[in-house]
Design a protein that fits this description.
alpha/beta, TIM Barrel, about 50% helix, binds flavin-adenine dinucleotide
Length: about 325
């Protein structure tokens, strides 16, 4: 499939420092970024969250950054999350989980050479304490497959004190149906997505149809179980199937939710919320938007036009 090739090429290209430098400096980039990213500061992210609220959309906020190998940076990210949660509470946006946060463990220390897991866990605890004060929840984003076990381990540790901490499972991984079974228990919040990283065939489905079939098998497990499924996809077929399965299992609209990314299918997000479903928007913000943006571009060849134009005008 040519679009799979394109996607792989883009993800590879994104590792190049030269390309990174060109994109970050390109004047067009700002426009592209603004569609997918809610600004660079806590205040801008809070403003976008308030705006989404006017159309009954919930939010999960992500302070961009990943694979931090600098301890000070990891601590600054932790502190920004705490500040963000305080600001959301002050703006009356966090109560009852209306706005929560999504956290990448590699942004708060997991990738540090020494004691990374312990440092990330400590920082995650500090973020969870701030979330508890604000009356909301935390979801641990899932990164590449080398970190899956460690992230699920951190989830287990955090849920002892903060049972509402959620996890993300990626349908493209062969292991994920089994992980869904483990996590489809009472009180367990699980976001199911297709998966966004370039992964080898030994661990992940490579074919889009196989990923979709896996997504449906995982949905069945989650919807049949006692947990709280968070259906993160823009794929209309999968959204229909999720809704049918929720109906089949007699789930009430408050026992699961839909999630989409800021900037993608925004009108559909509003329609879903209008129909009385819980619709949560993933709201990334911060200066470190490059890796996030490239993954979004790679998902859709049409977006490549924006990307190339931003290089051409440089
Ligand atoms: P696709 O098949 O990619 O897209 C279906 C349709 O949606 C497309 O035909 C198109 O109409 C539309 N669409 C999709 N992407 C775009 C785009 N970029 N621009 C415009 N239209 C588009 N991945 C992880 O690996 N770890 C995570 O923790 C994680 N968290 C996520 C949280 C949320 C709330 C969401 C929505 C996604 C998350 N993802 C995460 C990303 C996810 O894995 C996919 O890469 C992404 O959602 C695209 O898959 P899709 O299900 O939308 O289906």
């Amino acid at each position: 499939d040519p679009s799979d090739l394109l996607r792989a090429a883009m993800l590879q290209l994104s590792d190049s420092d030269l390309v990174r430098g060109m994109v970050v400096r390109a004047p067009m980039s700002r426009g592209v970024v603004a569609r997918y990213v809610a600004g660079e500061t806590v205040d801008e992210a809070v403003a976008v969250t308030a705006e989404l609220r006017t159309t009954n959309r919930l939010a999960t906020l992500d302070y961009l950054g990943e694979d931090t190998t600098d301890r000070a940076r990891a601590e600054a990210t932790r502190d920004t999350y705490v500040r963000l949660l305080d600001a959301l509470a002050a703006a009356d946006l966090a109560a009852y989980g209306a706005a929560e946060v999504s956290v990448k463990l590699s942004a708060i220390g997991q990738a540090l050479p020494a004691d990374g897991d312990a440092i990330a866990l400590d920082s995650a605890r500090a973020i969870c304490e701030a979330a508890a004060r604000a009356g909301t929840t935390v979801t641990l984003d899932m990164e590449d497959h080398t970190t899956t076990d460690r992230t699920l381990e951190a989830l287990r540790a955090l849920r002892v004190d903060f049972p509402w901490v959620g996890a993300v499972l990626q349908a493209y991984l062969h292991r994920t149906e089994a992980d869904c079974r483990d996590l489809a228990t009472a009180g367990s919040r699980v976001r199911l997505c297709k998966g966004a990283y370039k992964e080898p065939p030994s661990v992940a489905h490579q074919d889009g149809d196989d990923v979709d079939l896996s997504y449906v098998r995982c949905l069945k497990v989650l919807m049949a179980g006692d947990g709280y499924p968070m259906v993160a996809s823009h794929d209309p077929r999968l959204l229909d199937i999720a809704q049918a399965l929720a109906g089949h299992h007699g789930r009430s609209p408050d026992s699961y939710e839909f999630q989409m990314l800021l900037g993608i299918r925004m009108n559909e997000q509003k329609r879903i919320a209008d129909r009385g479903h819980q619709m949560r928007v993933y709201v990334p913000f911060g200066e470190d938007w490059y890796g996030y943006l490239v993954r979004r571009m790679a998902e859709r060849p049409a977006n490549l036009q924006f990307f190339l134009r931003s290089l051409a005008t440089n």
